[in-house]
């Protein structure tokens, strides 16, 4: 067995010693390249990860593409001039770090006209909930949060959890999301039975500022909300 190389050996002598010991340079190079590629990928993923904060998008196409990559998504439709939108932003920012599996997004209604039309958004603030790419719920204004600007993030959290978009136990959330019914958008077909049911709900809720339930997304003119 050859003696270990001396610390004073030159580079060429050290390489000769390694070759004599049967050191596989090709395998070591491939291993190092793979390790470097993994590190680069991890850094890239870390930079691209928006989870844990509320991310603003100004380009509609990029927003839709980003939404398609996540299972749980909250999208806040906002307007910079509306004070209640700013309050909603603050509360969502408090919740985002607690739910890393949910992507929290915000976009100005002026930047995403297609989605505003597609989702029939007519009252702000409006928070849409998406699970597996389907819109399953929406929160319009503050009516369900005590109809007050002083609601807490805990109240908002409790309300949003009902849609299954804030999972803490992913296995439980998976079971819950499978039972969610997608909400209607502006171009969805509506059966006669559904129309009759909606008509009944509208009459029953006529005293509630002209609004109806959160899941059908309808809105009657004359609301005194911000938008």
From TrEMBL:
Region (Disordered): 183-227
Keyword Lipid metabolism annotated: no
Basic and acidic residues bias: start-end ranges: 194-207
Phosducin domain span: 63-175
Keywords for the protein's UniProt record, in alphabetical order: Coiled coil
Listed Pfam families: Phosducin
PANTHER family: THIOREDOXIN DOMAIN-CONTAINING PROTEIN 9
Protein name: GTPase inhibitor
Lineage, highest ranks first: Eukaryota, Fungi, Dikarya, Basidiomycota, Agaricomycotina
């Amino acid at each position: 067995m050859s003696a270990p190389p001396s610390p004073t050996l030159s580079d060429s002598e050290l390489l000769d010693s390694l070759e004599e010991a049967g050191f596989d340079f090709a395998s070591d190079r491939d291993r190092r390249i793979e390790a470097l590629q993994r590190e680069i990928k991890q850094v890239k993923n870390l930079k691209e990860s928006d989870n844990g904060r509320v991310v603003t998008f100004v380009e509609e196409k990029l927003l839709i593409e980003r939404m398609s990559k996540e299972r749980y998504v909250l999208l806040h439709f906002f307007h910079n001039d509306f004070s209640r939108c700013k309050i909603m932003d603050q509360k969502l920012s408090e919740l985002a770090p607690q739910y890393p599996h949910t992507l929290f997004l915000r976009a100005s209604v002026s930047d995403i006209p297609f989605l505003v039309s597609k989702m029939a958004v007519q009252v702000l603030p409006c928070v849409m909930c998406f699970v597996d790419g389907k819109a399953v719920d929406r929160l319009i204004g503050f009516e369900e949060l005590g109809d007050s600007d002083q609601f807490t993030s805990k109240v908002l959290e409790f309300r949003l959890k009902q849609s299954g978009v804030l999972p803490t136990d992913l296995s439980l959330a998976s079971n819950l999301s499978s039972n969610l019914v997608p909400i209607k958008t502006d171009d969805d077909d509506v059966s006669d039975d559904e129309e009759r049911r909606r008509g009944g709900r509208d009459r029953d809720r006529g005293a509630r500022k002209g609004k109806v339930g959160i899941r059908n997304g309808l809105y009657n003119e004359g609301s005194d909300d911000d938008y």
